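Lab notebook, page 48
Experiment: co-folding of the full assembly
Goal: obtain a model of how the components sit together before planning crosslinking
Operator: M.T.
Materials (sequences as entered):
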Amino acid sequence: MKIVTASPHIHCGISTKKIMLSVAAALTPAALWGIYVFGVRALITMLLSVGFAILTEYVLGKISKENTIYDGSALVTGMLVGMNMPPEVPFFIPILAAVFAIAVVKWTFGGLGHNWANPAIGGRVFVFFSFTSAMSRFSMPRTLVNAVSGGIPDAISSASPLSITKVVTAAKSAIGASSMQILTESGYPYTKFAESLGKATGLNPYNIDAFFGNISGCIGEVSAFLLIAGGIYLLCKKIITWYIPVSYLASFAILTWIFGGVPNGCGFFKGEVLASLLRGGIILGAFFMATDMVTTPFTRTGHFIFGVGCGFFTFLFRTFGSLPEACSIAILMMNIATPTIDKYYKPKLFGTDEMKVIERQAKLASEAGASSTPSSTNKEVAK
Amino acid sequence: MSVFATFTKGGVHPADKKELSKNSAIQRLPLPEELVVSMSQHLGAPAALLKSKGDAVEKGEKIGEAAGFISANVHSPVRGVITDVKKVELASGMISLAVVIKTDPEQPELFTVKQDWRKKTKTEMLAHVKEMGIVGQGGATFPAHVKLALPPGKKAQALIINCVECEPYLTTDYRLMIEHTDELLEGIEVCAAITEPEKVIIGIEANKLDAADLFEERIKAKGLPFRVQRLKLKYPQGDEKQLVKAVINREIPSGKLPIDVGAVVVNAATSWSVYKAFVYNQPCIERVVTVSGECIKNPGNFLVPVGTKVSYLLEKAGGFKEGKDGSVMEPDKLISGGPMMGFAFVDEDTPIAKGFGGLLAIKDTKSRTQTSCISCGRCVEACPIGLQPTKMYHLIINKEYAEAMKNNLMDCKECGCCAYSCPAHLDLVQAFKTGKKMGRRK
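Observation: model returned without errors.
Model output:
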């Protein structure tokens, strides 16, 4: 049986499913690291969020008679929700977040492609503001617990470096101190590996630990190294473009460098760029959540503005806000701005500049009333 | 070495698949017994039929007269008798009046004596192009005499020869370029004599570098003032707008013609027709067709008269391949032209027309289930014209045609880059075709 369709008759082979599965694959190493360092509770949290995300998608698909669970988007949302959970979170929270993400953030707007906010971020922000204390209690990764002999004070073991420095800075008890000094003062541990590597290279051991994932935080956000590796995989496979991650991280880094030291009395141009980039969820956010296609602009310029906006808001909330984590809310704010960005930054129609030239020539010719050849002026305007 | 140029905005990189037929030399096929010659082998008004049923026609005799400004003459490709005048469906789905010609077994030896075209004046040359029924043979089939006649007051800065052949599979221009190099160059000389451009540039893509070298060698040997511009591989570089941008870095604005930026673009196959028209006085009555695709047994390039049926070409290319189990590999699609912009059709009696450069039989087994648009922006990124395909698509499926037109729908030339790269497999081009029709209606 021969078929007749409109052209084109060939396709590059990409599909929504392939995109989603690639994102899931890129997330996997960082998720596995989180599960390894935080143990069984982290595994269960991940399974619950993925499971309930897919289940919700299935049930809602049944109701609306659309079979969408095979497109893989629920899997990605579920993974992102799980990776954004603290390891010790009560199990009902990831379930709630996953169901909210799929049912409310995505399906009430018409399912994949129609939601205005990133579902995973919507789910996380929802439970964060509903259960703030449970969402702010962290635990030490296995690698750090093993590194220290003797107990770690509960106040330290249940906080993340980001929240420790935030509390100290807010209390103005260590004016002029760097975050490294604050962490050392409060007795936050680092691994032997980071200590020796730090001595050899002169780098801050806390940053080394944060880079490799020996830091307390949400399950999937701790290993900057594996997240960047996943991000590079997506860039190489051309699933995402570099505009959003780079503009996000760069604008955040520059703003932090200039103003990051101000709240703690260190002055301008004293911000700790590396520490800020490696702690918290900004790497996860920049590569995997700010690059969600549905909720970001179409054009490259739009992507760039979106990324800079994310960087700006993340910096603003982190440096001057009261909450330690700002990434999700920053991305959410820019999700809201996306339609506006799309409205003002449309791709330029081919030949727009040349059209102006031709119109100007026609005007000149009509004004002069002569039949001078327009091609004589073409040379001046040819780029 | 020379620098590879290309256009800047959008474009895609489909696998070129030219290896299937690029090494098989152009083969002149024996005349088929019956030809179906359509009166609509060009863009614009159909030619007015000059003959009727039962008339005997001579090879090269005019049987259709250009009717209107944008129209072209049609000639009989063979000596024979008109056995029928009927309406046929062309590959594009268009219904057109056509004559059925029964080929005489005795064919005259015509179009073998060389003429000197250099004595002709410009007006005579243009009239000759029109008389010979030459159309743009890259696929758009725009009548060549309209294109080569510059509007008063306009001067051509560059005559650009389109040797890009950016559609996958197709190798007709490539074969012409390496087998008939001198003839193409003479055809280009004719075009240059008509348009009197400041410079002549031949644009060749990077997958035909041997042809580029050959051209350069022959240009040097003949002492012609032509230049070869090598181009990076990117679809749709063979489109006029993209080619002009790549070669002389000028953008043809919406609704304007190449001459508005000082360019005239002529296709390789067209310049071969021009050569034959001016040197041998032969009208545009035959063309090279690439028969290719995964299902074709012996892909190749065949020189056939206009009006040859697709079934005849398929037969001469060995028919369809046999699979491992001995069963015939039936294609899912027959396509006239290339896979990006060509038309799928079903009827194997469909005749070859002047713009029919490729006959493809391909497998397209992967069912392309459509999913929701995920706003990934791949279509926006791929569009060489700077449109927002996804936005226009949503407007069209919601029947907001006027709004789609405001979003520059009419600037879409259906190159297919958006649909080619859409992960949701939306029928974008289909929607745009519909949208244009509905939008024009209002």
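Interpretation: The mean pLDDT of chain A is 88.
Next step: discuss with group before ordering constructs.
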